[in-house]
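[Backbone geometry]
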Amino acid sequence: MSFLFYDPRPQMRKADGTLCANGSLTFTLTNTSTASDVYADADLSTNLGNVITLGADARSPTPLWGDSEIQYRIELKDSLGATIAGYPIDDVSGADFGGVNIPDPTSGDAGDVISTDGSVYELRPIREVPDGTGHDGEVLTTTDNVSSWTALPTPDELPDGGITQDPTSFTIGKFLVQTGTGTAATIVTGRSRSGTVTFPTEFDATPLFIGVEVTNGSLSANGNMPSVAVTASGATSFTFLCTMGELSSPDSDFDFNASVTIKYVAMGLIP
């Protein structure tokens, strides 16, 4: 391969900017004085030698082509043979010097692109997302390393009744989770309070689980809080009991001084 020295026929100038009329260009291997020829054509068939005499216009008589396998040293001299300041220039070469070999286009197929595996160039099919025209709602998939569009997969069938949700409950098919609040105002003894909660949505049978939490900040003179237990439950409601300290203790500081407020979560099946 070859490369054209750019500009093809520049006017060579001295360090002071004046034309280097009737000067010369000498070409050698980079960083050496070993002659290295240049050529008048891209085929490197017309050898011009390694010394080119410039005309009165300070131009080469022809464009100068270099061998792409070679790195050149270029030295500009005036008409008396003195080297112009700034010269010689080393490491002048074609753009593909250094072993970069562009693949032969006939070795690939129409639409192939030049790629690299990190060490050499090669031709390969272009890798891009397929045209999306006419594929609204489809998703990209790959089979045998080929990308294509396909219809969205059908989700698993939802349970009977589907999935519903509101601020205090949700159902998945026939399974219901619901939450709410309640109050224990009935005095059983000074140390006990009970209450009943009616479910907003009736279960098919006694719920599988009922969890209760007391939400008051303080419920006795000394700041104690009660334990709470579900004492009865059914499809429509449940009863809970709050107990403060030892029931047999005569100390009134452990008696309730307010109604008990609770929040709950219940889980079970619905009809």
